[in-house]
Design goal:
Layout: H1 2-28, H2 32-45, H3 50-62, H4 66-79, H5 84-96, H6 100-113, H7 118-142, H8 147-161
Helix pairs in contact: 1-2, 1-3, 2-3, 3-4, 4-5, 5-6, 5-7, 6-7, 7-8
Length: 180
């Protein structure tokens, strides 16, 4: 009897892996509506599955629905606070809306959970650079005479910010790529 249960458990894991692969493949080829339908169908039977919920957040983001993606990733951080990737993706969405303090907080949490998470460190550096740019700009506005010292700093920060910001990483990646 336990062999049957073990076999069923292995079948379910394989079936789940296939579902993840199917949904991910639909996302890769740009069939976001179909991917969302398939993800929702999976989540109807397994609503707490963190990996499919994560994928759903990516689909929502890629579909141009950042508010829904934010809600999905925020709920993941509540339900699975030990996972750093939802915090990173949440931060990228916040940064895209210029909510830099929220982005910074989310990235700091991702790093607290996984100090070796290079993508989160780099994204935090990008957020700090944007915050620095805002502070330098405000200082220049308040004290125009300080242009001699602020001008070069603003130029340097603006050059740094021209480089593309990392895309969110996939939760299934053990070492997140810089962009995906």
């Amino acid at each position: 009897m336990w062999l049957v249960a073990l076999g069923m458990g292995m079948f379910c894991q394989t079936a789940r892996a296939d579902e993840y692969a199917d949904v991910t493949q639909l996302v890769r080829v740009g069939k976001l509506s179909a991917a969302l339908v398939k993800a929702d169908a999976f989540l109807a039977t397994q609503p707490r599955d963190p990996q499919m919920r994560f994928i759903k957040g990516v689909i929502q983001r890629d579909s141009g629905d950042p508010q829904e993606a934010i809600a999905t990733f925020a709920q993941l951080t509540q339900d699975y606070p030990e996972l750093p990737e939802p915090y990173n993706n949440l931060a990228v969405l916040y940064a895209g809306q210029n909510q830099l303090d929220k982005a910074r907080s989310a990235l700091e949490m991702a790093i607290r959970i996984n100090p070796g998470y290079a993508t989160a460190h780099e994204n935090l550096g990008d957020v700090y650079a944007k915050l620095a740019s805002q502070s330098y700009s405000k200082a220049a506005e308040l004290a125009p005479a300080s242009q001699a010292t602020l001008g070069p700093k603003l130029t340097l920060i603006r050059q740094l910010l021209k480089t593309p910001v990392n895309a969110p990483c996939k939760m299934s990646d053990s070492a997140c790529p810089k962009a995906n």
